[in-house]
Specification:
This protein has 6 helices and 9 strands. It is an alpha+beta fold. A hairpin with a 5-residue loop joins strand 8 and strand 9. Helix 3 runs antiparallel to helix 4.
């Protein structure tokens, strides 16, 4: 029976059938019965009709995002570390330089842009930003930092804002993310 199955499956084997989900082969058969015999010929078609379990795209997206934002560098210098836990994003800045903080925040959002298709968007403090090539990182940073700007963040050392995002991954699958975006300052001399 396995030789017959291998002949039917051909060079692509079971893997080919599972990928293509259909298989058609021609056959001829000489059938012997009590009263004589006869020949059959035609096509034999197998169809795989199994519903695949939907795969949640979020874990793969979050893992890829974490790989990019783990060590945030600006001009070769680590300025922050970040992680997405669940749907919350935490960025811990290792610098009190305002330009480096803005550039580091830009790295985080550029990572989102790299992983998401242009139809994706993020909403922070009532402002929605499309994650396409027109995204203004400085406008997004200003929406996060609010009226107090970088100086306010440097004074308090912590900032948390809620966000929602509609993401289309590279496969075209849409999903939503909702969480908090937290900026922390972890520099001994930042408060001086």
């Amino acid at each position: 029976i396995s030789a017959l199955a291998n002949a039917i499956l051909g060079d692509d084997g079971v893997e080919g059938f599972l990928e293509d989900k259909t298989l058609t082969v021609t056959y001829t058969a000489n059938v012997v019965v009590e009263d004589g015999s006869f020949e059959l010929e035609g096509s034999l078609t197998f169809i795989l009709d199994v519903e695949e379990e939907p795969v949640d795209p979020k874990p793969a997206f979050i893992a890829a995002f974490n790989d990019i934002i783990d060590d945030i560098q600006v001009e070769g210098k680590t300025v922050a570390n970040a992680a997405m836990t669940g749907e919350d994003i935490t960025v811990t800045f290792k610098t009190s330089d305002a330009a480096e903080i803005l550039a580091g925040a830009g790295v985080v959002f550029e990572a989102l842009q790299d992983l998401a298709e242009a139809e994706s968007s993020i909403t922070i403090n009532g402002q929605t930003f499309e994650l396409d090539e027109e995204l203004s990182i400085s406008a997004l940073a200003n929406a996060i930092l609010g009226d107090d700007g970088v100086e306010g963040f440097l004074a308090t050392g912590k900032l948390t804002v809620a966000y929602t995002a509609t993401v289309f991954n590279k496969s075209g699958t849409e999903f939503s993310l909702t969480g908090n975006l937290t900026f922390n300052l972890d520099v001994e001399d930042a408060q001086k």
